[in-house]
Structures are given as C-alpha cells and as structure tokens.
Amino acid sequence: MRAVDKRLTERLTSEDYCKKEDNLAITKLAMRCVHDEIDKRPDINEVVRELQKLNMDTGSTS
Fold first, then answer.
1. What is the pLDDT of residue 4?
2. How many alpha carbons fall within 13 Å on the CB side of residue 47?
3. Residue 52, exposed/middle/buried by CB under 10 A (0-12, 13-18, 19+)?
4. Is 53:47 a contact under the CB 8 Å cutoff?
5. C-alpha R_g of the chain
6. pLDDT digit string (tens) for 28-40?
7. Cα gap 55→62, rounded to integer Å
8. Domain assignments of the chain as residue spans, ordered by start
9. How many Å apart are CA 60 and CA 17, to the nearest integer?
10. Which of 3, 5, 30, 40 can bridge 9 by disulfide, Cβ–Cβ 3.0-4.6 Å?
C-alpha cells in the first residue's frame, strides 16, 4: 500500500506515533469487541474508557 502523502507515511511509522504496547492493547480491545459471545463484548462506554486511558497513558493530546 502506498500513502498519498509522504508526511503521513512518516508519521504513521514514527515510534512516537503509536507504540507496540498501544497496538497490542488496541488489538486486544478490538478482539473483545468481536467476541463470539455477545455478552462478553464490552459496551461502548467501556471501549471509550479504555481508549481514553490509552490516550492518557501515552500523554497524547490529539
């Protein structure tokens, strides 16, 4: 896949943009969201809280 804007590619591949630990946490959350058993899926409020926590842990302001 080729990005249209070189700056976007640089930003997305920057270690400061998204750390491996963040990617793992987001992937685990996403896997919970598509769990086969509906009652084991997080509700939207839990998803938002977890994403906000990740954002706060990384010190990101965006």
1. 59
2. 14
3. exposed
4. no
5. 14
6. 999 999 999 999 9
7. 8
8. 19-48
9. 9
10. 3
Token pair in block for residue 29: 């959350």
Alpha helix (H) residue ranges in 1-62: 6-13, 20-33, 44-58
Question: In Å, how far are 2, 3, 10, 15, 23 from 32, measured between CA atoms?
Answer: 30, 30, 30, 26, 14
Tokens of 4: 């249209």
Does 62 have pLDDT greater than 70?
no
For residue 45, the model assigns a pLDDT of 96
pTM of the prediction?
A: 0.63
* Residue of 55, 61, 1, 60 lying closest to 29 (CA atoms): 55
